[in-house]
C-alpha cells in the first residue's frame, strides 16, 4: 500500500449508516493514505443508495452523495 498511489475506494456495509472517510495510516510515517477512501453504505431497515461520481479530471477523482429513498425513511415513534 505504501507505493500504490492511485485513488482507491472500498465500499461496504457495516454500521448501516452513510460514512465517507480515510481511515488508513502508514506504519512508516503515521500519515493518512490520502489515496484510499472508505465508504460505508446504508443497510436494513434504512435502505437507500449512494451516487458515486468518477471524474479523472478532478484531483479527488471520486465523489459520493447519499440518495434517500423517501419510502424507506423510518419515523421514530
Question: What would you note in describing this structure?
Answer:
The chain is mainly β. The chain has one domain. It has strands at residues 8-13, 19-21, 36-41, 49-54, 62-67. The strands form two sheets. A three-stranded mixed beta sheet has the order 1-3-2, with no helix packed on it. Strands 4-5 form a two-stranded antiparallel sheet. A hairpin with a 7-residue loop joins strand 4 (49-54) and strand 5 (62-67). The radius of gyration is 15 Å and the shape is elongated. The mean pLDDT is 89.
Distance between the termini: 46 Å
Give the helix level as a range of percent. under 10%
Please tell me the overall pLDDT: 89
Secondary-structure element order, N to C? EEEEE
**Distinct helical segment count:** 0
The spatial strand order of the largest sheet comes to 1-3-2
Largest sheet geometry? 3 strands, mixed
Number of extended strands: 5
**Percent of residues in beta strands:** 35-45%
Radius of gyration: 15 Å
- Report the uncertain regions: none
Shape: elongated
Number of domains: 1
Structural class: mainly beta
Quick description:
Helices cover 0% and strands 35% of the residues. It is built from no helices and five strands.
Characteristics:
77 residues; mainly beta; three-stranded mixed β-sheet; two-stranded antiparallel sheet; 0% helix; elongated
